[in-house]
Amino acid sequence: ADVEALFAIFGVKEDVTALSTEVAGNEFAAIPEALRRTSEYLTHPVFNTYHSETQMMRYLKQLENKDF
Known about the structure:
Glycine dehydrogenase, glycine dehydrogenase (decarboxylating) activity
């Protein structure tokens, strides 16, 4: 019901149930083909080295403090 209310507010004419079924079958269905990412992302080793937000923030602070 909340999603239907939001759809009404934004003037979306699609049926919530039909859209839900479509998205359940393909999670990318709601994203237009032209807007879908085709390149790799977050592949730099740093993204696999730091596993928590705190670790990442400490790493970023360490970079900030370096004298370039």
